[in-house]
TrEMBL record:
The lineage of its organism: Bacteria, Pseudomonadati, Pseudomonadota, Alphaproteobacteria, Rhodobacterales. Coiled coil: none annotated. Residues 31-93 form the HTH iclR-type domain. It comes from Paracoccus sanguinis. This is Transcriptional regulator, IclR family. One of its GO terms (molecular function) is DNA-binding transcription factor activity.
Length: 276
């Protein structure tokens, strides 16, 4: 359902979402060099393969000399490695240490794992948990269906908040002022011919989601895919992520999919909130 090149083309690196050094102007605690280092690591999220020094410099907005110093430092620490054949650079194994720490220490993810396994067993379709990060949703837990490719098992992939089932579920749980802010800053673009990019239409989907307690997205990330999302909220009621189930429209009608999947997804979201 999700081939490698398709998933990589939908990924939204953090560096594309407006989190720049300029945004911290006047902040005496903000370390510019640390920000530049993180931008180098973030630049690989949207890469199709090993990146050359020139490509890293272009992707991060640095001059070549500055990029070279950062790359050298990250190589020395094991966070970047030289690609085979000397064709460029790749993230090193130590990057996984950071992901491991985030997933292990997240207050909700550990208890969500068992719930998602049970949900996958019941629905027999792909089940994912994503985390909300401003204008995007980042996959943190993934339970596969029989059709999935290896790439669809990878955590860390991100999709837009404005055109996905998980994103609509999160937006529906946010105050209107925050929804307005997100939709005003979103870098809209078509992923498929059916992807919604009109803020008014997106608001309609968010309102529908808020009214019924779950979202339903068709053809947004992939033609022929249907996905249902339910927001995951903390004890304060704020959404921190979403659980979503995805399947093929060749096997489900939207009506049957919602009738079968929505109660189970809502139950799973509640179980996660209650501690598994």
């Amino acid at each position: 359902m999700e081939p490698h090149d398709h998933e990589s083309s939908t990924n939204l690196p953090a560096s594309t979402l407006g989190a720049t050094e300029a945004g911290a102007e006047g902040d005496r605690l903000f370390i510019q060099s640390a920000a530049r280092t993180m931008r180098v690591l973030e630049s690989f999220a949207g890469a199709a393969g090993p990146m050359s020094l020139s490509e890293i410099a272009a992707a991060t907005g640095m001059n070549r000399s500055a990029a070279q110093r950062v790359v050298h430092t990250l190589r020395s620490l094991g966070y970047l490695i030289q690609a085979e054949g000397g064709t460029g650079f790749l993230p090193g194994p130590r990057v996984l240490d950071l992901a491991y720490g985030q997933l292990r220490l997240h207050p909700w993810i550990a208890q969500a794992s068992g719930v998602l396994i049970e949900l996958r067993r019941n629905v027999r379709e792909r089940v994912d948990l994503s985390l909300h990060d401003d204008l995007r949703m980042i996959y943190a837990l993934r339970q596969q269906s029989k059709r999935e490719t290896w790439f669809a098992t990878l955590v860390g992939h991100s999709v837009p908040v404005w055109c996905t089932s998980g994103g609509w579920a999160v937006l529906a749980a946010l105050p209107e002022a925050e929804v307005d802010d997100i939709l005003a800053r979103a870098p809209y673009h078509k992923i498929t011919a059916r992807t919604l990019t009109d803020p008014a239409e997106i608001r309609d989907r968010v309102a529908e989601t808020r009214a019924r307690g779950y979202s339903l997205a068709l053809h947004q990330i992939q033609i022929g895919e249907i996905a249902l999302g339910v927001a995951l909220t903390g004890r304060d009621g704020r959404p921190w992520g979403a659980v979503h189930v995805a399947a093929s429209l060749s096997e489900w009608s939207p009506k049957d999919f919602a009738a079968r999947i929505a109660p189970l997804a809502i139950e799973a979201a509640l179980a996660i909130r209650m501690g598994g």
